[in-house]
Amino acid sequence: MRVCGILRVQTHAKEGMQMELLTTQEALELLKIDRKTLYKLLKNGDLPAIKLGSQWRIPVEEIEKLVGKAQNKNNIERRD
User: Fold this and answer.
1) Where are the alpha helices (DSSP H) in the chain?
2) Share of the chain residues as helix, strand and coil, in percent rounded to the nearest 5
3) What backbone torsions phi and psi does residue 14 show, to the nearest 5 degrees?
4) Residue 27 above 90 pLDDT?
5) Which one-letter DSSP state was computed for residue 63?
6) Neighbours of 32 (CB within 10 A)
7) Which of 7, 27, 69, 74 sits at a 20 to 30 Å CA gap from 54?
8) Which domains are present in the chain?
């Protein structure tokens, strides 16, 4: 899968560390979820993101964490 337009941001936390940010449209396409679902995740803080003015930017790392949590939850539910 190819994601276009990833924004790389230099962070001040660690020298040389970069954060890859996605637009909401890119996150929707990557996660294959509805727009309302994405904004609910953002609003509830379930998907940490950065708001720049009126636009959201979502770190790729946070999407990976969200998917990992969902996979773990599904694996635990299947065992029960």
Assistant:
1) 24-31, 35-44, 60-79
2) 50, 20, 30
3) -135, 135
4) yes
5) H
6) 6
7) 69
8) 7-79 (1.10.1660)
**Prediction pTM value:** 0.72
Question: What tokens were used for 44?
Answer: 């509830």
Tokens encoding 61: 């790392």
Residues 6 or more apart whose CB falls under 8 angstroms from that of 60 comprise 6, 20, 21, 22
- pLDDT tens digits for 46-73? 999 999 999 999 999 999 999 998 888 7
Cα–Cα distances (Å) from 74 to 48, 78, 79, in that order, read 21, 6, 9
Q: Which residue reads 């936390």 in tokens? A: 13
> Higher-confidence residue: 76 or 9?
76
Tokens of 13: 């936390």
